[in-house]
Amino acid sequence: MLPLSTDPITALAIRASIDAAKVICEVYHRPIAVVSKSDGSPVTEADGAAEAVILEHLNTTGIPVLAEESAAAGYIPELGEKFFVVDPLDGTKEFIKRNGEFTVNIALVEGVRPVMGVVLAPVSGELFVGDRNGAWSAVVVDDEVTNIVPLQVQSSDIMRVVASRSHGHVALEKLCEHFAIEEDVSVGSSLKFCLLARGDAQLYPRFTPTNEWDTAAGQAVLEAAGGVVLTLDGLPLAYKKAESNYLNPFFVAATSEELAQRAALKMVTTLNELEPS
Description:
Elements: H1 8-28, E1 34-36, E2 42-44, H2 45-58, E3 65-67, H3 68-72, E4 82-90, H4 92-97, E5 103-110, E6 113-120, E7 126-131, E8 134-141, E9 144-150, E10 160-161, H5 170-178, E11 183-184, H6 191-198, E12 203-206, E13 210-211, H7 212-224, E14 228-231, E15 247-248, E16 251-254, H8 257-274
Parallel strand pairs: 3-4, 10-11
Antiparallel strand pairs: 1-2, 4-5, 5-6, 6-7, 7-8, 8-9, 12-16, 13-15, 14-16
């Protein structure tokens, strides 16, 4: 059962994510055929099938949808003041590895900012939701939303970063040293944002490319829980960037504005130091 304050659009996105997760799990539990997109990234039949289910739900609203697989096929609708951003299967590499760390992502953007986000992990049933009414997590069991818990970012004496120092950008190690990071938490897909929203970590620096559909839902969840997502110029990560083909710049997600600003400044300094002279 959803909270009584759940917005109808949020409720629709939750329903769409649950139905998409069922389609994904059907593919997940049988041999997976993988092909490569034009950019070399992998895609499976689950990606397209899940997106079709989500679009069937969202199209009832009349709100345009920026969806990953449709965009890859060359279809991007006219995006107005309000539009959905969808990644039907974020973490395809994790899906192929069968480690469970992949998600369904649905966000609503108004202007250039995400105001609603739904992140659902199909295998575990973990659900994360954020909108103007706040943020909460839950577990989906037999299509029902159970175990609802409010989400709020947490400061901690032990600074945790969501990243893997052994597999990350060379600048990540320097950032971890600067902030005296005591522990790193490695997880796939948009679950990184959700760990910050839940209080399991405080910092998520991103030194590698992402698209808008990779981040919109997670950003909405984190910001609804009290966190922030900033680009390296210290401004909120924005959307509707047609001029860059909906590619995001590097960014940092954090549990506070102050921490995010400090991290963004250090990321810039570190990247400049690493540039060949």
